[in-house]
Amino acid sequence: MELTKLTALELGAAIKRGEVSVRQAVQAALDSISAQNKRLNAFLTVTGERALERAEQLQAGVKHAQSPLYGVPMALKDNICTKGVKTSCASKILGDFTPPYDADVVERLARAGAVSLGKLNMDEFAMGSTSETSFYGPVKNPWDLQRVPGGSSGGAAAAVAAGMGWYAIGSDTGGSIRQPASYCGVTGMKPTYGSVSRYGLIAYASSLDQIGPLCRDAADCAAILDALMGRDPKDSTSLDGPYGNLLHGLTGDVRGRTIGLPIQCFGDGLDSEVKAAVLAVADVLKARGAQVVELPFPVMEYVVPTYYIIAAAEASSNLSRFDGIKYGWRAEGCQGLGELYRKTRTQGFGSEVKRRILLGTFVLSSGYYDAYYKKALQAKAVIKEAFDRAFARCDLLLTPVAPATAPKLGESLSDPLQMYLSDVYTVSVNLAGLPGLSMPCGFDGKGLPIGAQLIGPHFGEGVLLNAAHAFQKDTDYHKRTPKGGEPA
Length: 488
Ligand code: GLN
Fold this sequence. Notes:
Layout: H1 8-16, H2 22-40, E1 43-46, H3 48-60, E2 73-77, H4 104-111, E3 115-120, H5 154-161, E4 167-172, H6 178-184, E5 187-190, E6 210-215, H7 218-228, E7 258-262, H8 272-287, E8 291-295, H9 300-318, H10 336-348, H11 351-364, H12 369-393, E9 396-400, H13 416-421, H14 427-431, E10 436-443, E11 449-455, H15 461-474
Parallel strand pairs: 2-3, 2-4, 7-8, 7-9
Antiparallel strand pairs: 1-3, 4-6, 5-6, 5-10, 9-11, 10-11
Bound molecules: glutamine.
Glutamine is lined by residues 126-129, 152, 172-176, 204, 311, 423.
């Protein structure tokens, strides 16, 4: 049995049956990490010894295991706090910051019998779309080492695609789970805002940030979300539910479901191979009894500016806590407090983060607040209404995840505005707080994975996962794995 090719649920079942020990699973993942991580730079910290100790503990309880993910090794994006394990946000400013507590999701996963292999590389403070803004160097796409894995959860997507662990936990503020999942050929989901606790997630833009899984398929996604979702009194934006059992609800039956194709998502600027692959998803679901309708969605031109104003505004406020006093790294040889703040922040943050802090401070400043920030909040309400109108007519929406497949390393760094524009299909989902899923739906002529996005109404996770599961029953894109990352 080639362990690293199994899904998380298949591995969990093999562990439960006693065919594979937890230790064997952990060892297989650690071997895969040692063989590949130098090349891919997906892991920033590997906690091998801890994982092997945890494997022994879990093995002792395997007979009584309830969770289908019991004993399955996974890894966490490095903006999720882990007690006693360095959490850097891929930034210099956090230095060797080691949190004294676990994020709520880490506790939930521990209760589900997860084994953590370590922490994953990302764009600095989750700001970026390519995982190139990491202080620790870029992550490489396992399908082609010359290309980016997407971002900001690029380490998470690359690790899952390359078989370095069975699933990963990322965060998504404007597409950071869905877009890297799409570039790396894995399944990823941002659940409804408020359904997964943000306690212990280092904040980028609090009204948009949401934690979610990157994994092999929709069934794994359902099982992981079952473990993650639920009310948490420690997060004031956490919701009461309804939380059902997503895994049990997975039938793959989409008969009678209406799938909307927002016309403005298939227009200019979309690569033709991506367009064809995404539209083919509609055909597969239609063959299974779903109805497909085209819908107007006349807000697409506003989504990127609205998102970047709100995200930058919140980032400028959230990141003011990193000052060299309370956490992490501090500049040396400063005269007085003012210089300490200035030097630490100037040298500790990378340029993309500083660009966002400047932009956010500007849009919140008196005189510009009404023109930019307030306007963006009004636009956000209009975008939400556009979704409400769409969901009055259909059960879910099908769109591309990104306008093209993974770009080459270095291409986006020189043109941040171009990079922001590539977020056009994902950011509106966060602005409206909706669940969104990305799944592999084909490959382009260069052999690079293409992703399709499904968007649902609030707490529509079950409908989304069912549609993705139906698609994955009839296709095998999600089962393909990269060879060695040399260009095809
Ligand atoms: N690319 C978007 C940004 O840079 C989204 C990032 C994210 O979802 N964390 O803000």
